Structures are given as C-alpha cells and as structure tokens.
Amino acid sequence: MNTIEQIRSGRTGILIAGNHEKIVQSILDFDFLSGKKEPSIVGLVSGNRKAQKFFFGPREILLPCYKGFEQIPAEHASRIAWLLNLQSGRRTFDSTVAFFAAFPQALGAHLFAENVPERHATELIRRFGAEKLIAGPSGVGLVVPGYLKLGAIGGTDPVQLSASRLGTAGSIAVVSTSGGMTNELIRAVASAGKRLSFSISIGGDRFPVTSLTDVLKLAESDPATATIVYFGELGGSDEYEIVELIKSKQLTKPVLAYIAGIIDEAFDEHMQFGHAKALVARADESARAKRDALLAAGAQAPETFPQFLEAMRSLPSTDFHDTVFDTAPLMDRHKSILSTRTILDLSDAPAFVKDGAIVPRSSAMFASMSLKALLGREVSATASAFVEAVFELLIDHGGNVSGAVNTMITARAGRDLVSSLASGILTIGPRFGGAVTEAARTWIDGVSSGMHAAAFVEARTKGGAVLSGIGHRKYRIGIPDPRVATLAQFATLLKKHPHYDFARSVEEVTTGKNGSLILNVDGVIAAVLIDIFVEVDGFTAEQLQELLDIEFFNALFVIPRTVGFIAHFMEQKRNDEGLFRLPDDLLFIRDTKPKDKPDTR
Fold first, then answer.
1. How many other CB atoms are found less than 10 A from the CB of residue 511?
2. How many CB atoms neighbour CB 397 within 10 A?
3. Helices (H), 166-237
4. Could you tell me which residues come within 8 angstroms of residue 173 by beta carbon, excluding any fewer than 6 positions away?
5. Is cis: bond before 560, omega within 30 of 0?
6. Which pLDDT band holds residue 599 (cuts at 50, 70, 90)?
7. Is residue 346 predicted with pLDDT exceeding 60?
8. How many degrees, rounded to 5, is the angle at CA 577 between CA 572 and CA 581?
9. With a threshold of 0.85, does the pTM exceed it?
10. What Å distances lie between residue 510 and 281, 380, 454, 457, 514, CA to CA?
C-alpha cells in the first residue's frame, strides 16, 4: 500500500507547527465539506496560548495549542500522520526533525516556507527523503480529494474548494514544482470535466525533499491514477527525470506536460523566472529543449498553454459521481469574542413541579450542576456531595473577616448590592479564602515528589515562604476548626487518600513548631477533593494540572461566600446605621505636634 492509499484508508491526522489562520481554516472547511465528522487537525504547536478558535462548518470549535511536540497527549498522538509546517524558513529544519523524532510513524509533511537554507533542505533529504512524503520547501502542499488537504492547495476559501471539486475522487494526478500553478491546474482539471486522484506541489526551492521522480513513481503505483498532468518551466533538469522514467518503463501511465518559458528565447540573455531553479544555465535547460525531449519520449507536450488546456479535455478518465460542496453554511460566519459553548444546556429543562407536587431531587443538585458548569463534565455523586458540604459550611464565618467587613462598610456608604459584593469579593486572595488552589498545588507537588513531609516542609518554607492550606488565626491544637473535621469524614469513603494523608503528615510537622499551624479549611478542601477526583472520577495528572491553572479550587470558596457577603449587605441595609467611621480612639496615627509652638521643621 503506497502513501496515497494509506491516506485513503484513514491516515489523515494533521499536526500544525506555526500558524496561518486562512490555511488552517481551509483545511477544516475541506474536512467539513467532505463529510468528515471531526477535523483532521489534531492541534497546533504554536505560541503560549492553550487553544485557538476556528470553524468546523458553521460551528465554532477550539483547536488545542501546545508548546512542543512532546506535550501532545497520548490519546491524540496516535492519530497524527502528517506535519503541516508553517514556520519560517530558518525554523523549518529544527521543527521538522523534532516532529519526526516525536512521531516516527508519521507518513510525511508539507514545508510551507520559502528560502529554507539549502544546507537544511539537503539534510532533510538525507534524513527523510527515502522514507517520508514531504512536499516542499516552498509550495502549497498535498491533496487527496475527500480525504486529506495538507496546506493551501486547492484554495483557501470555500468557493475555491468547491470550484476545484475537491470532494470528488477521480483519476488524474496533478504534479508541479510551482504552488500557484498546482492550484491553477487543479482548477483547470475540474473545468475540463475531470477529477483528481491526488495532487502534490513538490516545491519551488532548489532542493525539494521528495523528488519529482518519487512523486511520479507514487502516481504510477497508485491504482486510482490513470493520467499525470504536469507543469514545468525553463531551468533545472526535472523534466529529464520524466523522460528517463518513461524510457525505462518505470512510468507507463500517460503524461500531459506543459513547459513554460519559451519567451526566454526572445531576450539577449537568459532571464530569472519566479522559482530558484527557473534560470537557463545550459542549452538543455531551455523550455523548448525540455519540451522536445518529452515529446520524443512519448509524452504529450503542447506548445502553447491553450493547447495544453484543450488536450486536458481529451484525457481519458474514470467515471465519477460528483460531490458538489454546499458552501452556503460557510459563507456568513463570525467568530464570537468569548465562549464557544453554552455552559449549561437547559433546552430540556428539568421539571421542578409536576402534578401539583414538588419533584424530589438530589440533595446535592446545586453542587452537581455547579461542578458540571465549572468542569464541563459530569462528576460522581461523591464529588457532588463533598462540594455540597463545602458550600454549606463556607457560606459565612462571621462578620469579622475582611471580606464581610468590606461588604458591610461599602453597604453603609450607601452603595448598591453589586458594588458592596464586589468590595468584599476583591479581598479574597492568598491571605483570605483564595488559597484553596495553592493548597491543592502544595499537596499535588508533595505527593508527586515522593518526599517525606518533614523534608518537604523544610524545602517549601526555606526563605520564609508559607505553606498554603496550613495555619489559622482563630483555631489551633486543642481548638480545632469544626469544618475541617466534618469535611475530613469524606476521606473515609475512599480506598486510598494519599493527598489527605500527606496533608495530615505536614500538619504533624508544622504543629510541632507552632500550635496554630493546623490543617485549615482551604487545605482539607483541596486534599480530599483531589483524592475524590482521582479515585472516583478518574482524573489524570494532566487534568488536575489544568484545574490548578484555571484556579478551579478557589471557586469552591468564592461561590458560597458570595451568598454570605450578600447576607451581610442585606443586614446592613435593614439596619441602616448610616456611614461607618472608625472611632477616634482607634486611630493610631495622630498629630502630636504642640499646638502653641510654630513648626520649626
């Protein structure tokens, strides 16, 4: 099975290095118009973002972005068969080598950049030329109608894709070094009433990685290809490769070729055309000499381009059932600025009252729905019950805490609910309620490090750093926080609870130094929920890391305490005591300058 047949068998997963939004979107449009259920693009290795928004048909999607090839998750890596390298010429070599090191099973690549250093191109030929199908450097890529579009080949907007009939498999292979002429020939084949078996733009730089000979042998061995259409130009010796293949009978399928550049004969000296090789250095590199050689070998090689197009209409081709792309759904798309999804789909809203009675519901329903919104997935009844307990226990912790104080002061200043709530919420941080995520990071780091608690504490607190999840101003050994004891009971529901155990081991170390350095409510929330997520819900290390990155754990404090702050606001509005002012005897900075002496400073 040659490479083109492997593509038709489903080896079409693409990983993109760099970014070119129009090219990426054109591949997604090709996939959608070809009837694929999911994009062929697995992800992009590009920048520091985690995702980039595109369209799959009329629907917005997020393609994942990675910092390096080694970060591709295993469940996606198995799909990857192709590299679309959109990076600059100076970076193309390193990224291509890194790709094939990470994915040795991949079939090939397209190198989009022009002016890749020639020493890089020749080294890529040495390493991969015999094993991989690599279009470029410099070109538009590779297309197998209905299966794979790798690059800008065939066009970059839906109308171009439709006009090129890229949804219908045919029997004509289009081959050229020129990217622009490859696209022109694809359109010309469609206009002539024929369809492609595949097309490759070899690349316009001096040293394409996959040679013309290799591409022609691919066409010869492809059972779907009946005829080869080729566009060449003056300069170089590519066309003599075709001549030798025909003479040696390694290429038996009909070849229709056009060689551009006869106009060069009208000048006193040879002219440099667009590509690196398009300059006549010897007589046999002229357009006329190469055309004559092809004719002598038995290929069709018309003298003018109109004759070339006319000959294309006469080529034999297999019957085909034309698939016409419906581009209407792709014509008026506008990216949303923010979210790509409805957080909770309530189109089938649950019944709350039925037949005159309240429908019984889970006691942890609000927590369950909150977790589904925050995580984008369903979680276990254990996780929902734990979070419901957290929500109940953390609604309020008295009026003395900083968030409640700020809320009440703002309310007494005559401000509205939202302003007062915002004032309270803005106090949440590493010293008040915003340490749950950092506590989770502490326990995850500790368990994964394999260190004993004492050594871990020593390493973490070196230089005066604090341990998130440890310590409380009100509670201490002998005066425990009742919320911690209540939430810790959930650990008994698990077979193993390594993060909770590690947190308690750390507490033993820290309370040995200071009785107030107990496991606090932030710490127990983080430790127990991590253990639940891992054992009951099957969260991976990568998924836990993502929860840390998006500050998920802090939300478990913010959500219930918002209710508590609102309650303090409403109490102040009911009481209406007026503007708050600190008593004078609480002002510690006073003007002590004698009143009867002039200021001599």
1. 17
2. 18
3. 179-191, 212-221
4. 196, 197, 198, 199, 200, 219, 222, 225, 227, 228, 229
5. no
6. very low
7. no
8. 100
9. no
10. 81, 33, 9, 8, 6
DSSP state of 359: P
Q: Is residue 517 within 8 Å of residue 510, measured between CB atoms?
A: yes
pLDDT > 90: percent of the chain: 74
The answer to whether 295 touches 268, Cβ cutoff 8 Å, is: no
20, 120, 270, 275: which is the annotated catalytic residue?
Answer: 275
Contact 42, 13 (CB under 8 A): yes
Q: For 478-551, where are the alpha helices, taking DSSP H only?
A: 482-488, 498-511, 521-535, 541-549
- For residue 404, the one-letter residue type is A
SS3 letters for 236-276?
A: CCHHHHHHHHHHCCCCCCCEEEEEECHHHHHCCCCCCCCCC
3-state helix/strand/coil string of 33-86: HCCCCCCCEEEEECCCCCEEEEEECCEEEEEEEECCHHHCCHHHHCCEEEEEEC
Average pLDDT over residues 66-71: 94
pLDDT at 601: 38
Q: Please, what is the Cα angle at 373 between 525 and 24, to 5 degrees?
A: 120
Q: How far apart are CA 157 and CA 524, in angstroms?
A: 54
Closest CA to 451 of 518, 508, 505: 505
Report how far apart, in Å, the C-alpha atoms of 113 and of each of 26, 85, 87, 106, 274 are. 18, 8, 7, 20, 15
Contacts of 282 (CB under 8 A, 6+ apart): none
Reported as a single tens digit per residue, the pLDDT across 519-572 is 999 999 999 999 999 999 999 999 999 999 999 999 999 999 999 999 999 999
- pLDDT band with cut points at 50, 70 and 90 for residue 337: low
Nearest partner of 3 among 169, 224, 252, judged by Cα: 224
**pLDDT tens readout for residues 401-433:** 999 999 999 999 999 999 999 999 999 988 888
Distance CA 175, CA 181 (A): 9
Select from 35, 52, 34 the least CA-distant residue to 43: 52
Is 76 labeled as catalytic in the residue annotation?
no
Residue range 351-362: average pLDDT?
Answer: 74
- The answer to whether residues 411 and 566 touch, using CB atoms and an 8 Å cutoff, is no
Tokens of 306: 């109109």
**At 14, is the pLDDT very low, low, confident or very high (cuts 50, 70, 90)?**
very high
